[in-house]
Design brief:
By secondary structure, the protein is an alpha/beta fold. It is built from 5 helices and 5 strands; from the N terminus they run H-E-E-H-E-H-E-H-E-H. Helix 3 links the parallel strand 3 and strand 4.
Length: 165
């Protein structure tokens, strides 16, 4: 793990750039499964390698993906769109699709409409049709999150007190 810590500014063993570098080869995502009341997680890389440990049709499973950062193209991951496609390919290859997919932030790198457009276009290939979104700080940079809300929170009842802070 220490091989992926490039700059440990907070001296906590966590480095965002190192994390991105590590995730570039992993195909970012986690499969969560509830079976017999027990919650278990596996990375998409693990799922791709071991078909025997996939959830059964009777289990509740969902996928969490995060930090797509569409628009980013620096040293840590020069082709984030391809990394996102790899993650979706791994999801689509599962014999039983998860109940839903949740993206937990940073769809985009700079909150640009074209970054969200690219994400939406690539996501169309995903067999898991129910997708939910949580904004990341990169998704709400320019307009306080208006573009993100208009695209991804349309079906949310805003009368329930949901706010982007």
């Amino acid at each position: 793990m220490s091989n992926y810590i490039c700059h440990d500014h907070e001296h906590d063993g966590i480095d965002r750039r190192g994390f991105l570098k590590c995730m570039a080869w992993a195909g970012t995502g986690v499969l969560w499964t509830v079976s017999g009341g027990v919650l278990v997680s596996k990375t998409l890389a693990e799922v791709a390698k071991t078909g025997s440990s996939l959830p059964k049709a009777t289990d509740l499973s969902f996928l969490q993906i995060s930090d797509s950062h569409i628009g980013f193209s620096k040293e840590a991951n020069k082709d984030v769109t391809e990394t996102f496609k790899i993650a979706l390919d791994r999801i689509n290859a599962m014999p039983t699709q998860p109940a839903f997919l949740i993206h937990t932030g940073d769809i985009s790198q700079l909150s640009k409409p074209e970054e969200f457009d690219t994400f939406d276009q690539v996501l169309k290939s995903c067999k898991t049709k129910d997708v939910f979104y949580v904004p990341g700080e990169h998704d709400v940079l320019n307009d306080g999150g208006k573009l993100f809300r208009d695209r991804y929170l349309k079906s949310v009842d805003r009368g329930q007190g949901l706010r982007l802070v």
